[in-house]
Amino acid sequence: MDIIKTNNLTKNFDDLTAVDTISFSVKKGEIFGFLGPNGAGKTTTIKMLTTLLHPTKGSAEVAGFDIIGARDKVRRNIGVVFQEPALDIELTGRENLEYHARMYGLSRDKRKTRIEDVLNLVDLEDKKNVLVKNYSGGMKRRLEIARGLMHYPTVLFLDEPTLGLDAQTRRAIWNYIGKMNKEEGTTIFLTTHYMDEADFLCDRIGIIDHGSILVIDSVTNLKNSVGNDVITLSCSDMVKLVKRLEEESWISNIEQHDSFVTLGVEKGEEKIPVIIEIAQSLNIRIKSISVRKPTLDDVFLHFTGRTMRDQEATNTTRSAPPRFHGRMR
Amino acid sequence: MKSVEFQAIYIMWLRQMKRFVRSKSRLVSSIVKPLFFLFIIGSGFRVATFEGVDDYLSFLAPGIIAMAILFSSMFTGISVLWDKQFGFLQEVLVAPVSRFSIIIGRTLGGATVALIQGFIILLIALGLGVKISGVFGLLLTFVFMILIAFTAVGFGLVLASKMEDFQGFQLIMNLLIMPLLFLSSAFFPVTANPTMKTISSFNPLFYRVDGLRGSLIIDTATVNPPLLDLLVVLVVCIIMMGLGSYFFSKSEV
User: Fold this and answer.
1) Which residues contact B174 (CB under 8 A, 6 or more apart)?
2) Chain A closest-CA separation from residue B111 CA (Å)
3) pLDDT, tens digit (0-9, with 9 covering 90-100), for B108-164
């Protein structure tokens, strides 16, 4: 059963098309991820699906209700964790949850038990009476995720759930997200520009760039589409080598980038000597060569033709996951 | 209206109360500032004689009460901008609550805070020996205070929906609200100068101050009878609340 279904959803801001006629569907109970660089249109899509923005064209259904015609019913069925924290920092953690519970019309008994439940789920029980302005970034995120779950939503939207958090906290958040998907059976729609995050969490992924969806598939299928193993090499004459390698049938795909070439192959270890032999016969000197399992990085590169390493070079902060620049809201 | 909507209105009201009580600086400044006006302007102008004004402190007190309520309520309306900047507005707007209830909740919260401040100043004024007119006058005063609060929250909401940051708010305060306040007879009578009197008759703040004064203080120089003021203030209030609701419901995040 499809819990989210969009039909040519489009949003224009003046002359900028942020989301361009996208159509996709999300199944009940799955974790679906929108992967793309900043400015790709992920947040705009979430804002339309959560009834905060009016689509320019197209339509969408969430939990069986139209996002334009039945906004209240959609709102009742969704939980949202926004990209920027949306907490009242002058209230305590508990009071923020209390506020939310009342806004969603939970009864007194339910409020009490449910607040305890979600606080326990994200391990904030002992911090519940602390003002949110004294929370760390990770605690705020956990509180928001707890809040998003409060009213038993059918779908939970998470917009960049681990943006700006340290590696340890990200792990913890991933665990919480996985836990609530399993324990509460909540369908989760998340956006991210972290490849490892999508890889770790998602059942299926849609890759989005410049407002359009390039591909939607399961993580495994996406990885297979670039080959079982990925060989990355750099050499003295890439053009010549690529031309020669294109004649080889055992290479499922070849991509040439600025300073390196990637090859999708089976049994990568055994292919390295073969490639070196070919190169030597052409008098090409191989500078470096490596083999590894494909990551979503490779998938992204394959479908967008853009490498994140270029972007990374300008990124002076040495954060572990690759990230894009030029944020757009 | 469904009970969910009442719950939402209640919790939004409660949020404002909690924030107000916790924000010590706002609490102190919102009471001390009007008192400065009351004492400093009060003792400064006391020696001057205005036509029809016997006791200047009794004349000034309603003006200061109106000013305190006005500023506090406008702040509530404009504080939607804070929620916008801190992202909290998204949490409010994504909830399954009608936009109308959201505005009502916010207005009631802001009005309550403003009225608390107004009453504190009223009590201090009474302690200073301001001569009030009686029970009916006092009741009418409360009505005026409530209407002033609602109107100002509505105006604040209009500003908050149309503006992106606080700079514009400062501009409006300095170039619009302050002159209107000086021309409202809050600090001195406008009747002596015919030009000023004409301008004042187009000033919505004038009717609020004049009405508040007419209902609260005994034997004082007001321009209009309080009930006429009440009519004007009521109409302006309805228009402002309507505009505030309209612009707020149109705003997207």
Assistant:
1) none
2) 20
3) 999 999 999 999 999 988 888 888 888 888 899 999 999 999 999 999 888 888 887
Q: How far apart are the first and last CA of chain B?
A: 26
Q: How far is CA B11 from CA A43, A143, A147, B17, B26, in A?
A: 28, 19, 16, 10, 21
Q: Which of A1-5, A47-51, A84-88, B43-47 has the least mean pLDDT?
A: B43-47
Q: H or E segment at B197? A: helix B194-200
Q: How many CB atoms lie within 10 A of CB A48?
A: 26
What CA–CA distance (Å, rounded) separates A52 from B214? 46
pLDDT in tens, A192-239: 888 888 889 999 999 988 889 989 999 888 888 877 788 999 988 888
Burial code (b: 16+ CB inside 10 Å, e: under 16) for A285-312 equals ebeebebeebbbbbbbbbbbeebbeeeb
Token pair in block for residue B200: 């004042």
Is pLDDT of A48 > 90?
A: yes
Q: Does B1 touch chain A (CB under 8 A)?
A: no
Report the alpha-carbon distance of residue A315 to residue A296 in Å, rounded: 20
Distance CA B38, CA B62 (A): 10
What are phi and psi for residue A34, nearest 5 degrees?
-100, 115
Q: Which residue of B has its CA nearest to A47?
A: B253
B11: which chain A residues are within 8 Å (Cβ-Cβ)? 98-99, 102-103
CB contact (8 A) between residue B8 and residue A103? yes
The predicted-structure confidence for A160-195, as pLDDT tens digits, reads as follows 988 878 888 888 889 888 888 998 889 999 998 888
